[in-house]
Amino acid sequence: MSTAVILAPSVELLMGQLVGEFTTTAFSAMALPDADAPSILQEYKDAARLCLDRSLAVALRTRNIAASQQSLLPQEVWCLVWQELPLFQRVRVTHVCHFWRTVGLASHQLWRNVDICPAAAASDARSEAEFYPNSDLEDDYVEGHTFPLNQAQSNVATMTTVRTSIQMLEEILPRSGSLKFHLVIQARMDGYGDYSSRHLARIVKPHVERLSSLHIAFSDTDCATVFLQEVQPFPALRVLTTEFVKENHRPLHNSKFNLKNFGRRDEEDAFPVLETLVLDTPLAWLAKNDSYCHNLPTLRSATVAVSGTTGLMSLLHHCQALKTLHVLAAAGEPDPAASWHPPYFGISPEDNPHRDRRGYYNEERSTNKLYSGDIVRRTASQIRNLNISGITPAAESALFAVFTGPGLSLCRKVAVGYVDEPGSAGLAALFEAWSPARVHFSYTNTGATFNVTAWDAPADGRRKRLSVPCHAAYDTLARIWEHLSLDAITEMTVDAVLWMFITHGMAHMPHLASVTLLVRSAKSPVIPSSRVYFDPARTDGPFAPIKAMQLDGPSSGLPMSVETVVAIICSASTTPRGARNSALETRYTRRKREPTEQRRQNDDYSLTETVFPL
HSE (CB half, 13 Å, CA atoms) of 36? Predict the structure, then answer.
């Protein structure tokens, strides 16, 4: 297939290609001159979609002409074509004539994924106004709602778009028939979010029994909270994700997602079958002096931002079926240290040293309302995949106190991410609790671009692997070596520039048989050369068991023997402690251009000499 055919503006030619080659797969199986060129495939798909978009109306109107090529296109293929079009274009297709409307309404699969953007661009608003000619603002739509004068003009334009989008949603939802559908709402609304959320909720509520997945992008959490509270309960909702969009032109009024009003004691659960929850803003489970918080009994996977110990403990209390948990540790307001206080598990007030100025412990008075220590421990013990990111010194001890300690079973996979360097006590507690039986452990430090990943096999004798790509924080590396069980590791992948880390680690790995060096760039000092200096006598000792060593990176195709790599590492092992990669002096020279084609192909930077300071 040539590019000219795909890009041809002729409707007849394009439809002929659709009939000949897209009969069963439409856009998903285009024939390409080079099957290994995904970018070209995407260009072809975009060009074909644009051509269809522009000529769709003409093609549909001439479909009933016997001599027309598009009359040969099966209805099933047209449905696949419509799926590739924007939602609004699908609506316009069904309004061309009675025949295509019948075909479109009979294809319920077309309307399962619905994306509504209330804050669409002005061009989209004009396009929707073409379909809805009576889209002017009515008095009853804004009755009782006033807006600041400096936002009046933008609000009027955006509210017109909001109204047409909600009208479109009202017509589209019944088209999916009895099928479950996925709804995406981008509620980037300003000044009138509550009213629009309630209006949207009235449209969705009659079809909530079929809503299986919901994604809400919002600039103010009140919009999402009002919508969920108005629509609840969600009897079929299994996936709920939210995306907080901070807009630069307006202040942040509310950044907490509040579930405190979801459900009541005498009513059915708001989320009876919810399995996956993703909230990227701090979760407010309860208001002050509130005695009830809604439970999520079937929740198995949660990604939640918490701003303090109370929020974390409440999460574990009300989500007792959790198996996968990703905690985004956020700074509490106004005092992060006070928000991330040690958890309360039933310590008597007299023995509790963490009391405020009035002699009361923050959680002591409301423990029975917020959470039960026994339930929290039981939930924490059954989590198998745990990821804690954004750990600060103020939150470190509180977080580890919740997930470590006596009576807790060990997680199968643990990942932690620090904002700053970890404290010795917190790191030691982490390894002491999870190291013996973990399968996967990863540590990240965003400030130093540092991460360690280690896989330890269970007690069934399977081999162990260690992966360490990093280039900083040698003191932290030393502490990690002290806690890792290295005697059974047989495979290792490590950054080639960490000489001190490599040599110190290999000395504790008697069964290490395979090493992979990660090369960052073609100028890495481990690139082999005929003039690399090494001492063959130094290949003894802890490096003797190594049977295979390879490079992984831009220079992975260059030859290098095991003896050469080991010699390079041994030579670098005498570098003083704390020395950085700059201690390796590497000099590059520019190859002289030769007239031959071979010299032009090989014209690049080459390593001529590598000197390791002794």
Answer: 0
- pLDDT for residue 355: 45
H or E element in which residue 40 lies: helix 38-61
Supply the DSSP symbol for 250: S
Which of 212, 215, 276 is CA-nearest to residue 243? 215
C-alpha dihedral sign at 13, 17, 23, 27 = negative
**CA torsion through residues 132, 134, 140, 141, sign:** positive
Q: Tokens 């001890």 identify what position?
A: 397
Residue 592, token pair as written in the block: 């002289």
C-beta atoms surrounding 71 within 10 Å: 14
Q: In this predicted model, what pLDDT tens digit does every residue of 365-403 receive, in sequence order?
A: 444 445 667 778 888 888 888 888 777 777 777 777 787
Judge contact between 425 and 393, C-beta under 8 A: no
Question: Is residue 139 helix, strand or coil?
Answer: helix
- Contact call for residues 513 and 491 (beta carbons, < 8 A): yes
Tokens of 378: 């039981």
pLDDT digits (tens, 9 = 90+) for 587-609: 222 333 344 444 444 433 332 23
CA dist 556 to 41, 424, 496, 524, 566, Å? 29, 37, 12, 11, 16
Could you write out the DSSP letters of every residue in 591-612?
Answer: PPP-SSHHHHHT-SEEEEEEE-
Strands (E), 287-409: 301-306, 324-329, 385-391
Structure tokens at 531: 């003039």
- Bond into 422 cis (ω within 30): no
Write a three-state SS string for 208-236.
HHHEEEEEEEECCHHHHHHHHHHHCCCCC
E strands, 295-380, are 301-306, 324-329
Q: Is 252 exposed, middle or buried (0-12, 13-18, 19+ CB in 10 A)?
A: exposed
What is the rounded (10 degree) CA torsion for 231, 232, 237, 243?
70
CA of residue 560 relative to chain centroid, distance: 38
Q: Is residue 370 a contact partner of residue 313, using CB atoms and an 8 Å limit? A: yes
> H-type helices in 404-557, by residue range?
424-434, 474-483, 499-506
Segment 161-211, tens digit of pLDDT: 455 677 778 878 888 888 888 888 876 555 455 667 888 888 899 999 999
The DSSP secondary structure of 70-123, one letter per residue, reads: GGGS-HHHHHHHHHTS-HHHHHHHTTS-HHHHHHHHH-GGGGSEEEE-TT--HH
Please tell me the distance from the alpha carbon of residue 445 to that of residue 257, in angstroms, as a whole number: 28
